[in-house]
Specification:
Layout: H1 2-24, E1 27-31, E2 38-42, H2 49-57, E3 61-65, E4 69-74, E5 77-82, E6 86-90, H3 97-113
Antiparallel strand pairs: 1-2, 2-6, 3-4, 4-5, 5-6
Helix pairs in contact: 2-3
């Protein structure tokens, strides 16, 4: 029984840590109102396009970049990154919010590693 209680406590700690991470997240994923994609918005942050280019090249292919926008292909999705702190994710297939959240977390990890989030 003691082991069972410990497992319940561990499970509770894992669930609590997962929910606190979501509450502290500094980006929001929302369906785009003008296209069949999703918009990822940073809260009080911006992107450094040059550093984003380096970061996203490690997890996908950078298609093009200007001082305002970066376009990349990541896991079959078209991703547009704007210096203002927004990303648009579009795909030929119908996107699910959970899938976009997972992609956003992967991209944000790479962007943070290369200093692309400012």
């Amino acid at each position: 029984m003691k082991g069972g209680k410990r497992n319940e406590a561990q499970i509770g700690m894992k669930a609590a840590s997962r929910s606190s991470v979501k509450e502290e997240a500094y980006f929001v994923v929302e369906p785009c109102t003008t296209s069949a994609g999703f918009e990822i918005k940073l809260k009080d942050k911006r992107f450094d396009i040059k550093k984003c280019e380096q970061a996203l090249a490690t997890i996908g292919d950078v298609v093009g970049s200007t001082s305002v926008v970066l376009v990349a292909k990541i896991e079959g999705h078209s991703v547009s990154v704007y210096g203002s702190g927004r990303m648009m994710v579009k795909s030929e297939k119908r996107l699910r919010e959970k899938e976009v959240h997972e992609l956003a977390e992967k991209m944000m990890a790479a962007l943070e590693k290369f200093g692309g989030v400012i």
